Amino acid sequence: MLLYTLAGLKPEQLAKLQAWEAKTGKTLLALSWHPVNLAELSPEEMETLQDLEAELRVALIAVQ
């Protein structure tokens, strides 16, 4: 599985992105991908993970 996160851009990369945004009036999100292996969760772990997601108001992914 691939996990996507916001990319850390170098200044020159960011400048190119911002130039495209200025030209088009559109906003871009730059993402990087990382291969990960999902962790197998027991029903109890899944339940507590979902509770934590609800409490924190974020999506959580358990990986190995």
Number of domains: 1
Order of helices and strands: EHEH
Instruction: Please state the structural category.
Output: alpha+beta
- Biggest sheet architecture: 2 strands, antiparallel
Q: Gap between N and C termini, in Å? A: 12 Å
Overall strand count: 2
Total of helices? 2
Radius of gyration: 17 Å
Overall, the morphology is elongated
Average predicted confidence as pLDDT: 98
Low-confidence stretches: none
Helical residue percent? Answer: 40-55%
Classify the beta-strand content into a percent band. Answer: 15-25%
Going across the major beta sheet, what is the strand order? 1-2
Which short descriptors sum up this protein?
64 residues; alpha+beta; two-stranded antiparallel ribbon
Could you explain the architecture of this structure?
With 64 residues, this protein is of the alpha+beta class. It has one domain. Helices cover 44% and strands 16% of the residues. The chain is built from two helices and two strands, in the order E-H-E-H. Strands 1-2 form a two-stranded antiparallel ribbon. It is elongated, with a radius of gyration of 17 Å. The N and C termini lie close together (12 Å). 0% of the residues are buried.
Quick rundown:
With 64 residues, the protein is α+β, with helices and mostly antiparallel strands. It has helices spanning 11-24, 43-56; strands at 2-6, 31-35.
